[in-house]
From TrEMBL:
KW Repeat (keyword) present: no
Domain Metallo-beta-lactamase span(s) in chain numbering: 34-252
Family assignment from sequence similarity: Belongs to the metallo-beta-lactamase superfamily.
Domain of life: Bacteria
Co-factor(s): Zn(2+)
Protein name: quorum-quenching N-acyl-homoserine lactonase
EC number in record: 3.1.1.81
Taxon lineage: Bacteria, Pseudomonadati, Pseudomonadota, Alphaproteobacteria, Hyphomicrobiales
PANTHER family, A to Z: 102 KBASES UNSTABLE REGION: FROM 1 TO 119443, QUORUM-QUENCHING LACTONASE YTNP-RELATED-RELATED
Catalytic activity as recorded in UniProt: an N-acyl-L-homoserine lactone + H2O = an N-acyl-L-homoserine + H(+)
Keywords, comma-separated and alphabetical: Hydrolase, Metal-binding, Zinc
């Protein structure tokens, strides 16, 4: 744990209406927000939390989200900036399977894959209002098959190399790398806290709170399966941040993202 380093892998940006970012509150109008993945260099291995979105998928299925992504903002491109390749990653853990968190999974056939145990079945059989969220199915041969979308699979993606180990509740992925069960936004959503030897812990809200304002006002995004659980999860995150004096990092907050360390800079 003494030399744990955390990198934010910039994955480009997307656009949503303000009424989606701040559910039933707004204000409306276009909000451009960042998407990124989290790389944890740890004594026990290299862990990647989420894999961003796939530009071609968004252009095909949700072009109204106006993706902006350079080659260096694809997951292989962002790893390349650090001198790494997808095969250098030991474990891919998905916070949930919305398209902006699993679009690059297909590049990691060799990594161990993990998620909450309810996320794979939910992606395979989503509620009608979740279909666009769970629209990039290239992360799992099993899910793509269940949804009749095997055309999304990259050649080489098999049932065997896209199988997930399911977990539940709060889980310590490696020493000081803590997954916090925060359902609501999705059925098996996880937030993340990383502890370091020489600095405050960092608590990544992931999509429990897209922005700082979301958490401060307990206003979640309009995408969720259980908004009451979503509020409780926000309260859990707030309390944990306070109890551990953790620095909060938000998932889709452009103003704050500009101050975050990205590229070859890291936290540790
Ligand atoms: Zn998201």
């Amino acid at each position: 744990m003494s030399d744990t380093k955390v990198y934010l892998l910039d994955g480009g940006s997307l656009v949503l209406d303000g009424f989606h970012v701040f559910w039933n509150k707004g204000p409306g109008g276009e909000v451009r927000f960042p998407v990124y993945s989290i790389l944890i260099e740890h004594a026990e291995g290299r862990f990647l939390i989420d894999t961003g979105y796939d530009y071609d998928h968004v252009m095909k299925v949700l072009p109204f989200e106006k993706p902006m992504q350079t080659k260096e903002q694809t997951i292989p491109g962002a790893l390349g900036l650090l001198g790494l390749e997808p095969k250098d990653i030991d474990v891919v853990f998905n916070s949930h399977f919305h398209f902006d968190h699993c679009g690059g999974n297909k590049y990691f056939p060799d990594a161990k894959k993990m998620c909450h145990k309810l996320e794979v079945p939910q992606a395979a059989k989503p509620q009608p209002f979740e279909i666009l969220g769970y629209s990039d199915l290239s992360f799992s041969a099993e899910v793509a098959e269940a949804r009749g979308a095997t055309d999304q699979l990259l050649a080489g993606t098999t049932a065997k190399n896209s199988t997930f180990e399911g977990v539940e509740g709060d889980v310590e992925l490696a020493k000081g790398v803590k997954l916090l069960f925060t359902p609501g936004h999705s059925i098996g959503h996880y937030s993340l806290m990383v502890e370091f030897a020489n600095r405050r812990p960092i608590l990544f809200t992931i999509d429990v709170a897209y922005t700082q304002k979301s958490l401060e006002t307990l206003c979640q995004a309009s995408f969720h399966i259980d908004p009451v659980a979503g509020v409780e999860s926000m309260q859990k995150i707030k309390k944990l941040a306070q109890d551990h004096d953790a620095e909060l990092i938000y998932s889709h907050d452009m103003e704050n993202f500009k101050t975050y360390k990205t590229g070859t800079q890291y936290y540790g």
